């Protein structure tokens, strides 16, 4: 097992990060306060320069002392400038892999890769912020191969040269039609409005076009044909812009899988790739917003026990294409996760649970009404607007609960459970008995009278995922309890 | 119903009721004191109207809460059951809101016995169980029983299932 240093460009990357993070302090100390003779600023500058120097020194030392190695079973990370630590992370603990190639990475033909474990805290992932693209690929493949069956050290190098793409099946690549539909569903045409507004505000700041613009504006609306032309041009531009925006975001997408892993790659300027072992998928979620339901589209998400944030923001890398035609979505789950079976036959809630749901207290409405009653605001000159707003709010609340009741469905079949919930956006949650880590049944007094119960279960995710349905018939809750007691049928003891 | 017929069989220690009563009394007395001080301050510095209304509204709520908190320990004691076997930890509790929980042994990460001053006075311990998803507490068992339960859970939780 030979240990390796990280990619030398990692130092460049870290220096860049350092400069980015200290940029504002720099501006403040050296540009905004350039003429200041205050002692604070003077010492601040000295401290800043010392800090910067130490940070640069640390980056170099870190690169020299941090090394890593892979064997047939785990990652080994050696680090520490003064006190040395050695970490071993077995491949079997890796929940998913994310690769992220930013513009910076593309400049140098490198990438970043994170191997996520299910643990919490700083050390939850094995991460390589800069690594050559071939090496990232090799590491990912090596891990997958090692998990499949033992590889010995000598085999590693040999097998790394094999072409791994041969066994991969591509399940989905968006066509032009898909992108077109996606741009409709995501209301991308409106993206241009905030951009134009901020553009206008910036120009206005410099040139004070406000007054001149007003004159032009009156000229325009006074001639109807000019107005029509401008509106048409604006619509064309915003549609074109929206399409381009959607294309950059969702245009290049590829969902593929091989025998034991699923791969999702996307992005044109910034590429991200997500991969997860099939047996590590904790649950499958099919989400449909109101708009998507109208157009027959759906989003499929794979729940993983490892985190999947890229940089600071949490991105939806675990999502298969967000605008899949619904039938294709179901087909694809069948193709990439043969271990999951989704049945369309589900049970609906009985009438009585509607009453329990409607009679639950409307907390938010209550608080809003009290606040409205206290301030009694006038809206559009209507004096008694407060009770009207309150009434409308109550009506919307009731309607949403009603729709939620109609949408709610559930079923248990073999080792699977399917729960569908939601009012405007619905979500169908499917998981297996061995992936559920605990369950709970609750009954309040009203539910006891009416023979109802609420069920809840917990799945691994980051943070853990609670899902459940309120007011199911107690018979179903009972079946759920017994179903979970039969858990040992699905698990293997080490 | 299966989950009612086969509900867990073990009871908490009888002294749990006393412990809860003392605890509730302490927190009620503090609650009344805080409310009293706030009322006095409201009167003394003539705060805004609505603050006064809220405080007055809180009085009956606090009284009802106090009365209930002196009755509830008996019912809570009667409702609490737990059980362990090599596969599951089963918990049942709740008076108004009855709760049945089922936790697989293989998912338990740690188990501990904890004793505060009140519990020590009656020779009791609580058993806290941490899982990947949450934590559960069996609130009052006699010390020997608690330690026995802890050992038992630790024993069962040693078994690992193939993580997939």
Automatic annotation (TrEMBL), chain A:
Residues 63-142, 253-335, 407-484 form the YdbS-like PH domain. The keyword Calcium does not apply. The chain crosses the membrane at residues 12-31, 43-64, 179-203, 223-248, 354-374, 386-403. It comes from the Bacteria. The keyword Membrane applies. Keywords: Membrane, Transmembrane, Transmembrane helix. This is PH domain-containing protein.
TrEMBL record, chain B:
The chain crosses the membrane at residues 20-41, 50-71. This is PH domain-containing protein. Residues 77-153 form the YdbS-like PH domain. It comes from the Bacteria. Keywords: Membrane, Transmembrane, Transmembrane helix. The lineage of its organism: Bacteria, Bacillati, Bacillota, Bacilli, Bacillales. It holds the Pfam family bPH_2. The keyword Transmembrane helix applies. InterPro entries: YdbS-like_PH.
């Amino acid at each position: 097992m030979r240990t390796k240093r990280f990619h030398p460009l990692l130092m460049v990357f870290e220096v860049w990060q350092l400069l980015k993070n200290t940029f504002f302090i720099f501006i403040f100390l050296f540009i905004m306060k350039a003429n200041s003779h205050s002692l604070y600023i003077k010492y601040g500058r000295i401290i800043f320069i010392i800090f910067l120097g130490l940070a640069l020194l640390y980056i170099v030392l870190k690169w020299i002392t941090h090394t890593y190695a892979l064997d047939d079973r785990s990652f080994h990370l050696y680090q520490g400038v003064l006190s040395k630590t050695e970490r071993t992370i077995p491949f079997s603990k890796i929940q998913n892999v994310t690769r992220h190639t930013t513009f910076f990475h593309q400049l140098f033909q490198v990438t970043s890769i994170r191997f996520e474990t299910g643990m919490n805290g700083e050390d939850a992932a094995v991460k390589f912020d800069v690594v050559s693209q071939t090496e990232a690929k090799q590491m990912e493949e090596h891990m997958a191969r090692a998990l499949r069956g033992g590889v010995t050290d000598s085999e590693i190098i040999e097998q790394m040269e094999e072409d791994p793409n041969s066994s991969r099946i591509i399940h989905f690549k968006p066509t032009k039609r898909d992108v077109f539909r996606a741009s409709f569903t995501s209301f991308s045409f409106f993206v241009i409005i905030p951009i134009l507004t901020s553009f206008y505000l910036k120009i206005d700041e410099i040139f004070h076009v406000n007054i001149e613009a007003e004159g032009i504006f009156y000229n325009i609306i006074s001639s109807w044909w000019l107005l029509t032309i401008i509106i048409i041009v604006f619509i064309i531009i915003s549609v074109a812009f929206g399409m381009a925006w959607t294309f950059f975001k969702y245009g290049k997408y590829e969902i593929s899988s091989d025998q034991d892993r699923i791969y999702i790659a996307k992005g044109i300027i910034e590429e991200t790739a997500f991969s997860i072992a099939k047996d590590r998928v904790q649950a499958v979620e099919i989400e449909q917003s109101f708009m998507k339901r109208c157009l027959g589209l759906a989003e499929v998400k794979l729940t993983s026990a490892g985190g999947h944030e890229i940089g600071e923001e949490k991105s939806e890398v675990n999502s298969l294409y967000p605008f899949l035609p619904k039938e294709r979505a179901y087909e694809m789950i069948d193709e990439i996760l043969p271990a999951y079976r989704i049945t369309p036959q589900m049970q609906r809630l009985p009438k009585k649970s509607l009453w329990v749901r409607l009679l639950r207290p409307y907390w938010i409405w209550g608080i809003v009404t009290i606040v409205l009653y206290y301030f009694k605001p006038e809206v559009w000159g209507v004096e008694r607007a407060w009770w009207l707003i309150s009434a409308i709010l109550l009506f919307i609340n009731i309607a949403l609960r009603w729709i939620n009741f109609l949408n709610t469905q559930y079923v248990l079949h073999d080792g699977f459970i399917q729960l569908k919930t939601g009012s405007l956006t619905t979500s169908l949650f499917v998981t297996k008995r061995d992936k559920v880590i605990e369950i709970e049944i609750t009954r309040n007094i009203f539910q006891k009278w009416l023979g109802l119960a609420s069920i809840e279960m917990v799945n691994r995710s980051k943070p853990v995922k609670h899902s459940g349905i309120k007011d199911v018939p107690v018979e179903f809750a009972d079946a759920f309890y017994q179903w979970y007691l039969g858990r040992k049928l699905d698990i293997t003891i080490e | 119903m299966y989950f009612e017929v086969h509900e867990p069989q073990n009871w908490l220690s009888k002294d749990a009721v006393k412990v809860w009563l003392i605890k509730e009394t302490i927190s009620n007395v503090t609650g009344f004191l805080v409310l009293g001080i706030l009322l006095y301050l409201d009167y003394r510095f003539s705060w805004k109207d609505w603050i006064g209304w809220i405080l007055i509204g809180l009085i009956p709520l606090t009284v009802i809460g106090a009365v209930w908190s002196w009755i509830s320990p008996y019912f809570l004691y009667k409702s609490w059951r737990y059980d362990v076997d090599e596969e599951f930890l089963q918990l049942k509790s709740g008076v108004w809101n009855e709760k049945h929980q089922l936790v697989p042994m293989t998912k338990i990460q740690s188990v501990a016995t904890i004793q505060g001053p009140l519990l020590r006075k009656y020779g009791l311990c609580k058993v806290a169980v941490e899982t990947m998803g949450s934590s559960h507490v069996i609130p009052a068992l006699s010390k020997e029983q608690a330690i026995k339960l802890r050992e038992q859970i630790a024993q069962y939780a040693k078994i690992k299932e193939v993580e997939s």
